[in-house]
Amino acid sequence: MKFSVDGKEFNFKYIISDYTGTLSEHSKLIPCVKEKIHKLKNRFEGIIVLTADTMGSAEKELSNLNIELKILNENTAIQKREFIESLGAENCIALGNGNNDIEMFKVAGLSLAIVNKDGCNAKLIQHADLVFNSICDALDALINSKILISLLRN
To answer: Do residues 54 and 65 make contact, with C-beta atoms less than 8 angstroms apart?
Structure first.
């Protein structure tokens, strides 16, 4: 996904997302996610979900999306940051809603805090480039980069 804002070029290759509370509400995949992920798959080299899977439902709920899922056990915040760094942080868009997403937000090329019905950690918002009221709205902004451009412009 390439676009330019105020002369700065962006070239994102990966979407890295949390699952619990970001792509799901009360452990169920939010209905719009499947359709929007399918629209985004051909624009990115990878869409990867990194999660502690607090509710234990990520594997089942994401099984039909054909995206990469990594379930993390300990030090999830550090593991998320290190994973993004291994891909080249500037190439990554991070999506999250929790305290354990702060470290990846600090290094990602673009970070989107997602509020949804489950809420969003206030400290995370301080590290976000953009905040969305729902994952549906955030994914729409990735589908239509003009939304991102308008929000990031000086």
So the answer is: no
Query: Topology of domain 14-74+83-152, per CATH?
Result: Rossmann fold (3.40.50)
The set of residues, in sequence order, having a beta carbon less than 8 Å from that of 122 and lying 6+ positions away, is: none
Q: What is the mean pLDDT of the chain?
A: 95
pLDDT for 24-48, tens place per residue?
998 899 999 999 999 999 999 999 9
